[in-house]
Amino acid sequence: MALLAIMGRPNVGKSTLFNRITKSRKAMVDDSPGVTRDRNYADAEHDGVKFSVVDTGGFSKNDPDAFVDLIHFQVNQAIEEADAIAMVFDGKDGPSPFDRDLLSVLRPIDKPIFYLVNKIDSADLEYLMADFAELGVGELHPVSGEHGYGIPTFLDMIVKVLPKASPKLEEDMISIGVVGRPNAGKSSLINKILGQERLLVSDTPGTTRDAVDTVCQVNGKPYLLLDTAGIRRKGKVKHKLEKFSIVRALKGLERCDVALVMLDATEGITDQDVHIAGYAEERKCGCIFLANKWDLVKDKDWALKKIKDDVRMNAKFLNYAPFMTISALTGQRVHRIFELVDKVYAQYTTRISTSKLNRMLENAITRHEPPYHKGRRLKFYYATQVSTKPPTIVCFVNHPDAVHFSYKRFLINHIREETGLDQTPIRLLFRQRDRKDLKVLKSGG
Predict the structure, then answer these.
(1) Which CATH class is domain 3-161?
(2) How confident is the model at residue 252 (pLDDT cuts 50, 70, 90)?
(3) CATH 3.40.50.620, domain 174-348, yes or no
(4) Which residues sit in the known binding site?
(5) Cβ partners under 8 Å of residue 356, min gap 6
(6) Per the CB 3.0–4.6 Å rule, which of 116, 177, 184, 327 could disulfide with 332?
(7) Is the pLDDT of residue 349 over 60?
(8) Known binding positions for GTP
């Protein structure tokens, strides 16, 4: 789709405008400057015209932010990709030397550029626009990202200059969430996959604050990559922006089909890695463990056995998740990630026929009889698969609450053996069914 880029100096309200235009809360909003660092994309629609919007980091030549050069690179990338640009000024603070810095970058650009004076909450405040005449940019448009003033008029103008959208791909895309501790190499991995500096990369933990969605094609097949902020221990999350980032990362897990749980191979699996893996397991998405920075490991044979054993021991609840070593820096085995993703996704979307499922269940309870409840053995009537992503099976039992977790685990493992679903979560639910005429599945008792 056509792309609108929103630009401006720090803290002029770009993210608020982004959220208003896209009718979302995808971009984080805070009073402190520098909240948005990566480019952040979302779709929008106005008057039947669909387009994409990108929110960029605040542009300032003399910004003390350690990431200023990377932010400038991201802004320039957005300019190159955009079909139209919205340059945002702060109506309450007036013109700034930082505005002139960005204007010097935009003046040579041969694309439609709209100059918005933000924080003009009503017609009574439009007199504040007079101060910006000295910038010599031509027509100025009063808007309020916070209250919506002037936004419909601005969007009317935007849809007239944007090129028409191309037909959207109908093919379903596998969504891949990239999660892990700060500085595990998540952004480096996505940049290696995309072949460009799509996301900020730094040795400083906490660089990525927003979750950023990116569509890519590998071997002609589209995938949706969800990059997320690094998740730290709750006790170490002091700044409210980092708390927002963690919430956003967890929401990314809820949206993904397959989670790439990234570990630092030089440190091995930590307690926090196990917690993050637990978040993925709770949300029942497919999972793949990636031990990154393998190029820095010296005794690889010993390290491989050690980290695999530690993963299986400490994250045994994800014993079905494949494990692979990679180097996002050198690209070692990165291409194989998508082979694994496809295999996991195929199992994640598997549907088992009801007849086959009940044969498996009958074999299972014959092999290992259900436990007793109040002196009487539990009765299993029948089972059916109700959904995929992951395969979700409901067993009708006379006393659902009496099924012990160990017997539930036995049934899940039996289903894995019979179906070959060894790389996907399986959700097994128990429901009450009291009808006397239902045939009870046979057991050895």
Answers:
(1) alpha beta
(2) low
(3) no
(4) 8-15, 55-59, 118-121, 180-187, 227-231, 292-295
(5) none
(6) 327
(7) yes
(8) 8-15, 55-59, 118-121, 180-187, 227-231, 292-295
With tokens 């009291």, the residue in question is: 434
Asked if the peptide bond before residue 390 counts as cis, ω within 30 degrees of 0, the response is yes
Q: How far is C-alpha 300 from the chain's CA centre?
A: 31
Cα end-to-end span (Å), the chain:
63
How far apart (Å, rounded) are the C-alpha atoms in residues 69 and 361? 60
CB atoms under 10 Å from CB of 277, counted, come to 24
Buried b (16+ CB within 10 A) or exposed e, 88-107: bbbbeeebbebbebbbebbe
What does the alpha-carbon distance between residue 125 and residue 386 come to, in Å, rounded to a whole number? 57
Regarding pTM above 0.85, the answer is no
Q: What is the model's pLDDT at position 165?
A: 55
Give pLDDT tens digits for 112-161. 999 999 999 999 999 999 999 988 888 999 999 999 999 999 999 999 99
Three-state secondary structure string covering 335-349: CHHHHHHHHHHHHHC
Nearest one of 323, 395, 412 to 354, comparing CA atoms? 395
Determine whether domain 354-432 maps to CATH 3.20.20.70.
no
Closest by CA position to 44, among listed 5, 73, 13: 5
Q: Where are the domains of the chain?
A: 3-161, 174-348, 354-432
Residue 269 identity: I
B/e letters for 128-153, b = 16+ CB within 10 Å, e = fewer, are: bbeebeeeebeebbbbbbeeebbbee
3-161 and 174-348: same fold? yes
